[in-house]
Amino acid sequence: MTRSANAFSNSTRFAARTVSLAAALGLLAACGGNERPTSQLQASQVNAIGVNAYLWRGALDTLSFAPLLSADSNGGVIVTDWYANPSNPNERVKVTVTILDQDLRADALRVAASRQVAQGGGWVDAPVQAATVQKLEDIILTKARDLRRKAVTG
């Protein structure tokens, strides 16, 4: 083989190796180069549904005693229909929960309740104790925090 033919052959092998190496690196990059690192800790801001998922689930669990009139996970609003406790059928309540933020925080939650009592064959509006609304908020927040804790350790 002549000297120029040998140099051409070496040059061709070098180019082929370079192309092969580039292709292999490209394949390796495609196999996982776009993966994001995962964290062991679940974020307190979970919002695949438009609002904080822990608050949403906590609110649904807390209000499971009453029939739902509407639930909008994107807007963060849950409204129950009127509910009368079987042990006190002369009184009924309706609850609206609004999730205001994507973070798991106490101020990201608003609960409003309406109460009616049976009177003269119809329903008459009656006041709701502030402690009742506060208790519902506390229960929802506690459930949401428990759900997050379970997600972190589970």
Arithmetic mean of pLDDT: 81
Q: Helical stretch count?
A: 3
Strand neighbour order, sheet with most strands: 1-2-3-4-5
The profile of the biggest β sheet is:
5 strands, antiparallel
* Element order: H for helix, E for strand: HHEEEEEH
- What is the distance, rounded to the nearest whole angstrom, between the alpha carbons of the first and last residues? 69 Å
The fold-level CATH name of the largest domain is Alpha-D-Glucose-1,6-Bisphosphate, Chain A, domain 4
> Roughly what percent helix?
40-55%
- Structural domain tally: 2
How does the overall form come out from the CA principal axes?
A: elongated
Q: Please tell me the CATH architecture of the largest domain by its name.
A: 2-Layer Sandwich
Q: What structural class is derived from the secondary structure elements?
A: alpha+beta
How much strand content do the residues show? 15-25%
Q: Tally the beta strands.
A: 5
Quickly name the level 1 CATH class of the largest domain.
Answer: Alpha Beta
Mind telling me the C-alpha Rg? 31 Å
Unreliable runs: 18-34, 36-41
Please provide a written account of the structure:
The structure is a single chain. With 154 residues, this protein is an alpha+beta fold. The protein folds into two domains: 1-35; 53-153, Alpha-D-Glucose-1,6-Bisphosphate, Chain A, domain 4 (2-Layer Sandwich). Helix content is 40%, strand content 22%. The protein has three helices and five strands; from the N terminus they run ααβββββα. It has helices spanning 3-30, 53-62, 130-153; strands at 68-72, 77-80, 91-99, 109-119, 122-126. It has a five-stranded antiparallel β-sheet with strand order 1-2-3-4-5, with helices on one face. The protein is elongated, with a radius of gyration of 31 Å. The model is unreliable at 18-34 and 36-41 (pLDDT under 50).
